[in-house]
Amino acid sequence: MMSNNDGNKGYILMVVLVVTALFVVTAAGLASLAVDQNKLGLKRIAWSRAFEIAEAGLNYYRWVLAHNPTDYYDGTGGSPGPYIHDYSDPYGGVIGKFSLDITPPDACSSVVLIKSTGWTLAEPNVKRVLQGQYGLPSLAEFAFLTNSNVWFGEDEELHGPVHSNGGIRQDGENDSIVTSSKETYICGPEHGCNNETKPGIWGDGGKQTLWEYPVPQVDFNAIISDLADLKSQAQSSGTYYDSTGIGYHVVLYNNRTYDLYRVTSLKPALKVYTGEKTTYVSLDIQDEDFLGNYTLPNNCSILFFEDDVWVEGELDGYSLTIVSAELPEVSNTNTSIIINGDITFKNRLDTNSLALIAQKDILIPFYSAPNNLDINAVLLAKNGKVVRYYYYNTNSPYSIRDSIEVYGSIITNKIWTWTWVNSSGNVVSGYRNTETLYDPNLKYYPPPGFPTKTEYEFIKWEEITEK
Fold first, then answer.
1. Where do the DSSP E strands lie in 200-245?
2. Tens of pLDDT along 125-143?
3. Spatial separation of the C-alpha atoms in residues 200 and 186, rounded to whole Å
4. Residue 17 — φ and ψ, nearest 5°?
5. Domain spans in the chain, listed from the N-terminal domain onward
6. Rounded to the nearest 5°, which phi and psi values hold at 146?
7. Using CA atoms in the order 283, 286, 292, 295, what is the torsion angle rounded to 10 degrees?
8. For a designed S-S bond to 110, which of 28, 136, 175, 415 qualifies (C-beta 3.0 to 4.6 A apart)?
9. Does the pTM of the predicted model rise above 0.90?
10. Best CA proximity match to 356, nearest among 384, 387, 381
11. Which are the contacts of 391, defined by CB distance < 8 A and separation ≥ 6?
């Protein structure tokens, strides 16, 4: 009779082998899973660090621009990018790299576009890409900016930031911050006071929670544009015009052309008060000679007139700066810009911008300006004022007009007013209703050659996925 022990031993051995095989397979699977999890963890770390490295690239280039605002080539003197830099840990060991691609601003922008790609040495194929924008804010970041005291009447509306290096009487409406560099100031008869000491901002209108004073002054001398440089740019592009004796008349068209006239005579002078003195002035064209229709050289152009210039018309899809200045600068030969009629954009939402830069004043004529005047522009009076004179012709229908709207910005060194009132607050000359609307695109996308600050500001950044 045979024993079953050998059969039992064989069965046990088979079970052991099966269990061992299962254990080995399970252990191998677990080991493989652990390896995969470790690799995934390392990739996640590399993914996170690649973001930090790309962000360091943006910060590095911001530092470059702070030390040299015109260095769009990473200190290489203009050689093409991308520019690759090492990225070190706190102990000085290189753990990754970032690559910079830089797009300089164009003629109608102060914005520098920086694309920064970051990766680690351990995982060079794991990359993150950040894109940032830095820009030089222009002087047109204000809806209204003045170097003197100012009074906003009850029929005047301000939409956008307002600043005065002097005091502000605010009887109108404002929906944005209003700032003054004065803690107190002397308010004179021109602003309805008897040489009284008033707070930096005071009055019966506006949202007083948005008033702030005193704040640092805006340095007009440091940020006013270089007229000689604008003249040089216009000469290079064939858009410079020398003195005629009286001035030029420009009519803008939405096809990027303009009609140009030489003014040969003005209407009889009228008695006015300029805000500084009483005198006789004529700002209205009597006769002129047509010189031709011209095409602007590109979408970002400068017209420079070494004489007074009358301006009106419509823009569509281009940016333009019109300058009136006689150089070298002598105070008694400073020239002015006269707004002869409506200046509008065909569509405010399109890419349009216009700057009128006057060496002296920006003025509104008596007869030719319409009853309801639209001005889509930045108005900059470098040494003078933005004003509609007080006309003593009080019986004329042209003396008191209805409304004026500025879409853009008003920048004036001296006094500003469109409206003159008597001691009872009644309008006696100028425009009854005025409104200033701020164009936010002007802050970083000003008209060509328009003055900007010297320090870049961060605008925005985003992560992008490269295809």
1. 201-202, 211-212, 240-241
2. 999 999 999 998 888 888 8
3. 9
4. -65, -40
5. 10-137+456-464, 140-442
6. -140, 155
7. 30
8. 136
9. no
10. 381
11. 270, 271, 272, 366, 398, 399, 429
